[in-house]
Amino acid sequence: MKLKNIILVIAVAALAFYGCKSSTGEVPQAETIKNVKIETVSDGVVQNTMKLNGKIKEKSLTSLSFRVGGPLVQLNVKQGDYVKQGDIIAQIDKRDYKLQVETTKAQFEQTESEYKRYKQLIEQKKIPENTYEKIRSGYLMTKTAYENAQNQLRDTELKAPFSGYIYEKFVEAYQTVGAGTPIVSIIDNSHLEVVVSVSESQLQRVKNDTESFLTVANAGITNLPVKLLSVGEKAKQDGLYEVRFSFANKQELEVAPGMTAEVTLHCASEENQLSVAASAVFHEKTSTYVWVYNASTNKVEKREVKIALDGTQGRVNIVSGINNGEQIVTAGVHYLVEGQRVKPIKTPSVTNIGGLL
Question: Do both 261 and 287 map to the same domain?
Fold first, then answer.
């Protein structure tokens, strides 16, 4: 009798054990609950600034050349020299051009005298009209030749069209150069430019720029006001758009073309937009999402959103997809799945450092 009772107990225990197993033959495991950081969506903080990295560039780099040709008798500059507007950079031998001026001047004076005499005669109707026209035509031709010879003589001096630095020298003194041959290149440093590249999502924000400030760490420049100069209407090969800012190159600024720079833009906003931490946003294929936290179920829901600006200063503006007052996950977004149960991490009080109290 005792033996039957023992067998019955063993059988009941076995049935209880196998009954606790799942239909797949596996023992159920406890649901994993992840700790996450939570932020409440608010329109109280609006992201209206952008930071863009770029390079300092000269306003213009211009090659200078003579409009006439001849032996180069003077080259008064070398690479790196500073020249003022109107300074003589180089000079061609004037000899032949002076002779041309003297020749054309004599011809002009002779025809001018005849022209004045025939003009009186035609007014008195003492000569035919066609005779007067031939004299007048000859006078105008010699006048033009004389003026052209004077211009060519002046063009034997190559003057700086603006103040700047000699960037490169292409010839040496005593060479014979032709008209249009580059002599030097000059950098216009009166104004400098900052060239940056922006994405398509940032383009409209840049166009709404209200004020911008320049920082050049290597030149000790911080928050120098700059002016939006141009915005590229067509993307470059890398898919980015070129944006240029300009600023006056004052003497006390120790900035030079090629330096790395940062531009901070303050952009106009037509309306308050919801702002969230950039770490809350994640991308899948061509869409952008956030995890919305449901406090009643302690679960998360993946929500597609549209952003106005890729993260700057740690925040992004949300155009649509979430509402003011909703809670979103701001850390560990890549390790969550739809409907997952989570536990918000409490933010320690400022008077309870480390959460020890």
Answer: no
